[in-house]
Amino acid sequence: MEPIQDHLKDHLDVVFVGFNPSIRSSETGHHFANPNNRFWKILFEAGITPRKYLPEEDSALLELGYGLTNIVARPTKSADEITKEEYKQGKELLQQKILKLKPLIVCFVGKGVYQEYSGKRNIPWGTQESSVVPGTIDYVAPSSSGLVRMRLNEIIDIYKGLANLIQSVKENKANEH
């Protein structure tokens, strides 16, 4: 199984960080490609994207100021197959990417992703009190996996919080110039 390509560049508004690619994502080479994954629907319904994108259009998010990566590159059937060592390496790599690329916001797609990244256990949804990498905002949203037992409208509401945060961060940035 092949890892899939990150879609990242300097100074993005948001970098979305998933656990790792699904088998389907590895087969297609695109992020959130499993038909049971609701990532693309959630982004659209929350007002983060102007329309519902397809997994094959994942690189087009860069034009909107959004990037995609994972804490672990190795594709698996489920996140519980990821080893502690893979998380440890993935966390270090992710911190390096964030330090180098300086996104405004890092959105963790799943509390478990943020737990592995931050080492914290009790994590609220939304903006975190302090960020792992200074100068960025850590935002925690539910996983978009079809396995998540939250109601879709509750998940979308948390992502609407991200949409509002993106808007306010962009306005602050514009006022500085």
From TrEMBL:
InterPro entries this protein is in?
Answer: MUG/TDG, Uracil-DNA_glycosylase-like, Uracil-DNA_glycosylase-like_sf
Instruction: Identify the residues that the record assigns to the Uracil-DNA glycosylase-like domain, covering every copy.
Output: 7-151
**Does Cytoplasm count among this protein's keywords?**
no
Q: Which GO terms describe its biological process?
A: base-excision repair, AP site formation
GO MF term set: pyrimidine-specific mismatch base pair DNA N-glycosylase activity; uracil DNA N-glycosylase activity
Give the record's keywords alphabetically: DNA damage, DNA repair, Hydrolase
Supply the Pfam families for this chain.
UDG
Does this entry carry the keyword Hydrolase?
yes
Query: Which top-rank group of organisms is this from?
Result: Bacteria
* Name recorded for this polypeptide: DNA glycosylase
